[in-house]
């Protein structure tokens, strides 16, 4: 499990008040079937934005966009890589 996935799982469990161990939250579990509604989805997005210091694109501010943890983690990873590419390199 990657550091991003571990942190996203923690955020989901804490924000959605899920009473399951982190390791039982499978990356393919359908988040809406687990009881996540749009309000909880936005709370999770805000918590992820705060934790990883980036903002979701407006087009992705919808719980339906991310059906499972895998999709959410992939988005976070891609955003972080995008930010890293935009940062000026040091030393050259």
UniProtKB/TrEMBL annotation:
Residues 2-80 form the Carrier domain. Gene3D superfamilies: ACP-like (1.10.1200.10). Keywords: Phosphopantetheine, Phosphoprotein. InterPro entries: ACP-like_sf, PP-bd_ACP, Ppantetheine_attach_site. It holds the Pfam family PP-binding. It comes from the Bacteria. This is Phosphopantetheine-binding protein. It comes from Paenibacillus oleatilyticus.
């Amino acid at each position: 499990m990657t550091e991003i996935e571990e942190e996203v799982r923690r955020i989901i469990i804490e924000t959605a008040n899920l009473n399951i161990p982190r390791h039982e939250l499978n990356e393919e579990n359908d988040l809406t079937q687990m009881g996540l509604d749009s309000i909880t989805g936005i709370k999770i997005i805000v918590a992820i934005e705060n934790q990883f210091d980036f903002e979701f694109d407006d087009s992705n501010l919808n719980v339906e966009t991310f059906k499972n943890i895998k999709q959410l983690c992939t988005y976070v990873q891609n955003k972080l890589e995008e930010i890293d590419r935009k940062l000026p390199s040091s030393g050259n």
